[in-house]
């Protein structure tokens, strides 16, 4: 089986799949032949694209109903993985959704959909983040147990687990095209030909392009560029919350010695090595200045990445309905880190025909159509 893409999606699935397969082989008393899993990553390093560019947050009240169910399940797995490995993967950083007077309807909708959120008045929000301007926040909603994710450690953990379970992990090899024959796929790469019984498409922003290379119709994915910058900001305690506009116009949080800011932009882009535009960086700084009293200094660094969405903003996970031997694992959008653990287990269970339930998740909502 060939997994195309070595970001968080491809690596987490490779580890879960190979480990589950190992347990099934053991259970069969050795009568079941083990699966050979191969991950192909075009870049020279894993996680170079979207995975390496995230804001590293786990927010249980963020995203569609399906995404929130996957995030809750992933939270439990991440706690357990951190405890097992002796290196915690999460660190608590509360999330404060802020709303102006004219955004109160949106805040109420959010509070209704997320019973774990606590409503806070202006003073409550300013107790958590005293730099918020009075005029910028009328009410807020607080997720006390939101987390920062140690993405480097998580990615490393999945790589190690995948390699230990027998997965072949290759970088600097790009899939060019492929043809399905009676015995599976003949894949052409820029490093020669390969054979695979099944192809898993975990190619992030390139997932529709990868499908096209194999003659499979697209899933209708849209990559949207998002920009992040780190600016100098005097007097920002590291424990301040993640502050997110309920209308998705900005977010910010402390990061080592500065402030991470984003205009929460969603600019359509072809699949590419995304670059931050100076305008988007300036907008991030301007919007955070508008809502806080912080003295924001020069921009230290900035980057952009592509968040890739389906039309309904749920990931697409499952076998292609028309093309035998082609499995979708794409459309992780803006939550592919916080949903990765449960999503990878779900995809592995579908691929190997084993049961796996995520409480509150309608699996059919993720099925390719
Ligand atoms: C600014 C920003 C902030 C974010 N913040 C968060 C956050 O706080 N929390 C959260 O959960 N998520 C966040 N995300 C989203 C998260 O980063 C993504 O959902 C996740 O990284 C997607 O992982 P992926 O493996 O699908 O994609 P990628 O990491 O892009 O991996 C896909 C890989 O496929 C490879 N590939 C493509 N075509 C081929 C080919 N033909 N052959 C071989 N390889 C190929 C690419 O080189 C790439 O490495 C954020 C994203 C951005 C951009």
Automatic annotation (TrEMBL):
Pfam families: DAO (PF01266). SUPFAM superfamilies: FAD/NAD(P)-binding domain. Keywords: Oxidoreductase. The keyword Chaperone does not apply. InterPro entries: FAD-dep_OxRdtase, FAD/NAD-bd_sf. Residues 2-349 form the FAD dependent oxidoreductase domain. The keyword Oxidoreductase applies. Gene3D superfamilies: D-Amino Acid Oxidase, subunit A, domain 2, FAD/NAD(P)-binding domain. It comes from the Bacteria. This is FAD-binding oxidoreductase.
């Amino acid at each position: 089986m060939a997994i195309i893409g070595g970001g968080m999606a491809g690596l987490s699935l490779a580890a879960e799949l190979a480990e589950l397969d190992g347990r099934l082989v053991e259970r069969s008393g050795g009568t079941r032949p083990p699966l050979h899993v191969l991950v192909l990553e075009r870049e020279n390093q894993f996680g170079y694209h979207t995975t390496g560019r995230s804001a590293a947050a786990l927010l249980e009240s963020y995203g569609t109903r399906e995404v929130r169910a996957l995030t809750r399940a992933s939270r439990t797995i991440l706690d357990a993985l951190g405890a097992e490995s002796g290196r915690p993967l999460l660190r608590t950083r509360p999330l404060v959704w802020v709303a102006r007077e004219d955004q109160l309807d949106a805040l109420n909708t959010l509070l209704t959909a997320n019973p774990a959120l606590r409503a806070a008045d202006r003073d409550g929000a300013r107790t958590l983040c005293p730099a918020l301007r009075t005029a910028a926040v009328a009410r807020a909603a607080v997720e006390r147990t939101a987390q920062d994710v140690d993405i480097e450690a998580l990615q490393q953990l999945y790589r190690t687990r995948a390699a230990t379970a027998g997965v072949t992990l290759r970088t600097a090899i790009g899939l060019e095209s492929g043809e399905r024959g009676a015995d599976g796929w003949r894949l052409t790469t820029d490093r020669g030909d390969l054979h695979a019984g099944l192809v898993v498409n975990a190619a992030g922003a390139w997932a529709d392009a990868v499908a096209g290379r194999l003659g499979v119709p697209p899933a209708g994915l849209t990559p949207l560029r998002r920009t992040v910058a780190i600016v100098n900001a005097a007097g920002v305690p590291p424990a301040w919350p993640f502050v997110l506009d309920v209308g998705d116009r900005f977010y910010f949080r402390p990061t080592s010695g500065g402030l991470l800011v984003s205009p929460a932009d969603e600019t359509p882009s072809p699949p590419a090595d995304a670059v931050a535009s100076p305008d988007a960086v300036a907008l991030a700084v301007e919007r955070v200045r508008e809502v806080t009293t912080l003295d924001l200094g020069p921009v230290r660094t900035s980057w952009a990445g592509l968040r890739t969405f389906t039309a309904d903003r749920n990931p697409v996970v499952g076998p292609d309905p028309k093309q035998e031997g082609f499995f979708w694992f794409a459309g992780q959008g803006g939550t592919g880190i916080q949903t990765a653990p449960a999503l990878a287990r779900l995809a592995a269970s579908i691929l190997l025909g084993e049961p796996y339930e995520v409480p509150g998740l309608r699996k059919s909502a993720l099925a390719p159509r």
